[in-house]
Design a protein that fits this description.
heterodimer; A: 271 residues; alpha/beta; 8-stranded mixed β-sheet; 14 helices; 42% helix; globular; B: 89 residues; alpha+beta; two-stranded antiparallel ribbon; extended
Chain lengths: 271, 89
């Protein structure tokens, strides 16, 4: 039976889609069968980040409305054969998604995959609520920045109120994933630290993704960062986060800043 | 001057404190239980039974430490002056 995970944040632009692609690829690389589902109807981007934008024929709305079968809409990744994408529609809007239709599609995905990762749209409205509705677990993507942390807190409230699990009185496992973390700035007191974020949101930490040029490079290439540069800091951090999602107990090391002589002398990053 | 430089550099503690106060308030108004916000409401209602105070004049802060936590309550009470009969602005 699959694990349904929603990747959510409230705030836009914090890295939900990047995270969905990277975690999905990492889980699939570990041999799990994974479906990544784009819930951002009208503004789909998971296809682009995964490099599958020219292979989209049918989408989530077609399947929800019964116009296409699930296997017609699922796109298999060309690099990892256990990774599949269910794209969002680019032309319709979120009102084309019905509660019953989404429930049926998620149910069908559960039977075919080990993991179903739902990439939530930004906001707290219907689209975001549908993405989280059937989740067993949630990954709350948070930047070390006040508006992102505040919006994460709102989303945590929604996860505890509006999901099927919450309505049944069951627990939904929630994890914080801090992205775009700059250890140098945090250590200088210019950026919220990991301890601050964890304490404020009172949730366990799934991982810390350091700010890195590799993330933009990966999306430029249409390749999840765990594949485009597996040895890079964000790739290693995502791979470890995926292992924690699978239940492994790995210590989290707060990324240390690499400082050369120049930066030590002048106290600023050359970048 | 050095103090100003220090304050300028260390904005993270300000972010942290602002978030803690804001979220304590938002969690209570959005239905999540929160001690600080509950305390703030109840203290306000007790005081205002006896003295007229502004709802924003009660500040409740809680700091969680490793072994003890501190609760800081600050209440501003306006000086008692008889209200004028007619107020003109």
């Amino acid at each position: 039976m699959a694990n349904v995970v929603v990747v959510t944040s409230g705030k836009g632009g914090v890295g939900k889609t990047t995270t969905t692609a990277a975690l999905g690829a990492a889980l699939a690389q570990a041999g799990q069968t994974v479906a990544v589902v784009d819930f951002d109807v009208g503004l789909r981007n998971l296809d682009l980040v995964l490099g599958a934008e020219r292979r989209v024929v049918f989408d989530l709305i077609n399947v929800v409305q019964g116009a296409a079968k699930l296997q017609q809409a699922l796109i298999r990744d060309k690099r990892i054969e256990t990774l599949w994408l269910l794209p969002a529609s680019q032309t319709r809007d979120k009102d084309a998604l019905t509660d019953e239709g989404v429930a049926r599609v998620i149910d069908e995905l559960r039977q075919r995959f080990d993991w179903v990762l739902c990439d939530s749209p930004a906001g707290i409205e219907r689209g975001a609520q549908l993405a989280m509705r059937h989740a067993d677990q949630a990954v709350i993507v948070t930047n070390p920045e006040v508006s992102s942390v505040r919006d994460s807190d709102r989303i945590i409230g929604l996860l505890d109120a509006k999901t099927v699990r919450a309505e049944r009185g069951e627990r939904i496992a929630k994890h914080v994933l801090v992205t775009r973390f700059d250890p140098a700035r945090a250590s200088r007191g210019e950026m919220l630290g990991i301890a601050d974020i964890v304490e404020i949101l009172s949730l366990p930490l799934l991982g810390i993704i350091p700010e890195s040029q590799e993330v933009l490079r990966a999306s430029n290439l249409g390749t999840p960062v765990v594949l485009s540069n597996p040895a890079s800091a964000p790739a290693l951090a995502y791979t470890e986060a995926a292992r924690r999602l699978e239940g492994e107990d790995l210590d989290i090391v707060i990324p240390a800043e690499k400082r050369g002589l120049f930066t030590k002398l002048f106290g600023r990053r050359a970048a | 001057m050095i103090w100003n430089w220090f304050k300028r550099r260390h904005s993270a503690p300000v972010a942290r404190e602002r978030l803690q106060i804001l979220l304590a308030h938002e969690r209570s108004t959005l239905g999540r239980s929160n001690l600080v916000a509950v305390l703030q409401d109840e203290i306000l209602s007790v005081i205002s039974r006896h003295v007229f105070i502004d709802p924003d004049s009660v500040q409740v802060k809680m700091d969680r430490g490793a072994t003890i936590s501190t609760l800081e309550i600050e209440i501003e009470i306006p000086n008692m002056v008889a209200p004028p009969l007619a107020v003109t602005y």
